[in-house]
Amino acid sequence: QVQLVESGGGLVQAGGSLRLSCVASGLTFSIRALGWFRQAPGKDREFVAALSGSGLSTRYADSVKGRFTISRDNAKNTVYLQMNGLKTEDTAVYYCYVELSWLNKPYAYWGQGTQVTVSS
């Protein structure tokens, strides 16, 4: 089974930094992508950052470019989101995900989420 567990969220002042971690297990099949989404109260879940399964490319939402960095430690089966220069607008529950391929079809798996609150 696939399981993703996020950690590292918390309360931080604007301009501060946090590093989110997502420990993955049960990744049996080909990985199409790894990444992070977030959801603020009353809003839809939105894309934040992604890393290709090959590890050769990254993609970021315009709102976080230059401030957030996604990375992966294969030895620890962990995906990270380094968040610098945090803004109050970054307040949300952050979810990690992995997209796998099985029988040439995509399957997405989500973590339980970790709360990030940025105060002014």
Please give a quick description of this structure:
With 120 residues, the chain is mainly β. 0% of the residues lie in helices and 60% in strands.
Describe this entry's structure for a reader.
28% of the residues are buried. Strands 2, 4, 5, 6, 9, 10 and 11 form a seven-stranded mixed sheet that branches. The chain has a four-stranded antiparallel sheet with strand order 1-3-8-7, with no helix packed on it. 0% of the residues lie in helices and 60% in strands. It is mainly β.
Fill in the keyword field for this structure.
single chain; 120 residues; mainly beta; 7-stranded mixed β-sheet; 4-stranded antiparallel β-sheet; 11 strands
Percent of residues in beta strands: over 45%
Radius of gyration: 14 Å
Look at the helices and sheets and give the structural class.
mainly beta
- Number of H- or I-type helical stretches: 0
